[in-house]
Each structure stands twice: as C-alpha cells, then as structure tokens.
Design brief:
With about 250 residues, the protein is mainly alpha-helical. About 50% of the residues lie in helices and about 5% in strands. It is built from twelve helices and two strands; from the N terminus they run αααααααααααββα. The chain has a two-stranded antiparallel sheet with strand order 1-2. A hairpin with a 3-residue loop joins β1 and β2 (about 225-230). Residues about 205-210 and about 225-240 have low confidence and may be disordered.
C-alpha cells in the first residue's frame, strides 16, 4: 500500500472494518461495508463502526475519526496507531500526543515565496466534506476565523525573523539612543545622608543633635504667684576651669 494514498484509503472506513474483522469476526463482516469514495459511503461505514465500538466498549478518539473522514494530514496515521494500541495493549513510541491537522508544519518547511496566502490557507484546512456534514454557518465562520488568525500570526513571525525582506524600517523610538541618567553631586550627597539616617533608625539609637560632652540636669523652679511646680529644663553645663577651682 502506498503511503501517499493512505489518507484516502482509510477515509471511508473499509480498511478499518477489515482490521477489526480479524479480531472480532462474529461482529464485523467485510461484505457489509462499501469500498466507495462518496460521502454517503463514508458516513454509512463509519456509522456501522460506531455501533460496533459502542457494543464492544471501544473508545477511539473521535477527532481522529473526523480527521480521517475528511482526509486531514496525519489523521489516518494517528488513527492506525490508536487502533494498534487499542488491540494490542501496547504503545508506539512515535505516536503524537497533540492533535493538529492543520498544514502549519508543512508551510514552515516551504520557502516564503511558496507559502500559501490567507485564501489558500482556508482552502487547505477546511474540506468540502466538513461543510457538507456541518452546514452551520456560525461554526464554519469560527473555523475560518481561527485559520485566518493562525495565518496572520505566521506572517508576523516571518516579518520579525526577516525584516529586510519585508523592508521594515525601525521606528523613531527604536533608533533613539538611550543613555543612563547621570546623578549629580548634590543628589549623591542627599542619598548618602538618607542612607545614614535610615541606618541609625534601624539600629534604634536616638538621634544626637547637640555637641559632645553635654550633660543635662533637672532643677525645680518656684514662682510666687502660681506656686511651685517641676519643670524639666535642660541646661548645658559648661564650666570653666576657674569655676571648677572655686567649687
């Protein structure tokens, strides 16, 4: 079997029915399935397979089945891998965990001049059979918007990677040279003083505003009219050598 025809050979479900007929011969008969390429043949075969899956409590990934019906790239390969894991209880090492049936990977391999436009991207990623099965305009519009957004993001990446090809000129803000802000001597002195004050406050020490060698004394002052009361007065005692001698 040619790998190039693999998506079309598995799209109608006939080969899938043959695979399961070897494991469940009493439930599946090949003569009950039509090996045709029309949409009616595909839906009829997959409807019978869905009844078989429900009877045997088999749960293949529905997204893989839908992708295989519409011949999405990579869907048939992933469906065969899923069926192999289902029947043999094994797992293939190169099975893909992420389901992505767009042509994004294929477009990345092409040169820029050969990559598809927005209209071509819509045509490549939405098949006619999808619209025939699901003619809802709103759902199809959502699919188209998602494809256009993916296409625009890819274009933005191309512009960032190759700005010369698209003749993208840097803006005025990008061309402006930015120098670091110079700190003047006055600002640096203020910053140093602030650091010292914050260091003292963190230590919990009182701030000393007077001179060194200053002593404080509490005295009582009596007044004739208002009576006596105690006032805390801080007097600087600076005694001269002559006064010390007289005392």
């Amino acid at each position: 079997m040619s790998l190039r025809l693999l998506p079309w050979d598995f799209s109608n479900g006939y080969l899938i029915a043959e695979i399961f007929s070897w494991y469940y011969p009493a439930d599946i008969h090949s003569h009950g399935y039509e090996n045709g390429a029309s949409l009616a043949s595909k839906l009829s075969n997959w409807s019978q397979l869905a009844q078989f899956f429900s009877k045997r409590n088999l749960k293949p990934v529905q997204e893989l089945i839908d992708g295989t019906i519409h011949c999405k790239p990579g869907a048939a390969e992933m469906l065969v891998q899923d069926i192999y894991s289902m029947l043999t209880n094994g797992r293939i090492k190169n099975i893909q965990d992420e389901v992505d049936f767009t042509d994004h990977y294929y477009q990345e391999q092409l040169p820029m001049v050969a990559r598809s436009t927005a209209s071509k991207a819509i045509k490549n990623n939405i098949k006619l059979t999808e619209i025939m099965i699901e003619p809802n305009i709103n759902k199809n519009r959502q699919k188209v918007n998602a494809i256009i957004n993916m296409h625009m993001q890819q274009r933005l990446v191309e512009r960032e990677e190759n700005p010369k090809r698209f003749n993208i000129k840097p803006s005025l803000a990008e061309r402006a040279v930015r120098h670091p802000v110079a700190v003047g001597p006055s600002e640096s002195a203020i910053n140093i003083q602030r650091e010292k004050l914050s260091f003292i406050s963190n230590l919990g020490l009182p701030e000393i505003r007077g001179k060194t060698g200053v002593q404080f004394k509490e005295i009582q002052v009596k007044q004739a009219d208002r009576g006596s009361f105690t006032v805390e007065v801080y007097v600087q005692e600076l005694q001269a050598p002559s006064q010390k001698d007289s005392n």
